[in-house]
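Researcher: Dear colleague, please comment on this protein.
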Amino acid sequence: MTKPAAFEAVYLVDISKHQFEDRFDWHAAALDIAGVFVRASVSYANNGQQWIYIDPRYKNHVNNIEAASLPTGAYHYFRGDCDLERQLATFIRAFSMFPHALGAWLDVEEPNNTKASQIKWMCDEFERRTGQTLNIYSRRNVLDRLRWPINPQERKYWLAYYPFSTIGNEHDQPRLMAWVDTAWIEIDDYPIRSDTTFWQWTPRGDFLWDQACCLDVNKYNGTPDEFDIEFNLKAELQVEAKNGVRPRINWRKRII
């Protein structure tokens, strides 16, 4: 199998209030990653009480990331035991603050208090009210427990799966090795299932750049050109060029 150049792998990270906005140099990160998923809103329940709110670092995170010309996506941390209407309204309000090229995502991690019918309602209502698709982040075993059918023709799926430990953290050697079954293989050789758009495969992002040790790393299921086309990023770059925006060095380590 012929392997692509190391920087042809499309990596992204995700971030929330748990990471301080002044900790990351996104201009440096833009040399190694293709985009960032930002938590826009969150729901939480305990002892009969509910908290549903916009992530307090959401605005600062997005502004800082966009200043480095990185595209963003926004996600809502969902709980089935919190008021659905309030969750939806809060997420739509947050999502509408910025033009998220990577779209909207529903973070489903709580199978014990969630029903498939609730996820469907959130997706249908978000799409009816905004005209945009609500995609899903989860783990495959969570969706299996909820009996949620994964249909990549209907919406995109970003799935977390940590099957192995990773080693290697050099910027000029970003291919990571993974122990799978009985041998070390390169991450780029490990297949992403065809129904998955993004694969979250490690919570340690320090192989990308030193500041990212507490960030999850995600890999796009495709080539850089396919990534640009799927999320209409080339069109945005053409508009920037037309408006006289200075060309930028991007995550492929070349001038666009």
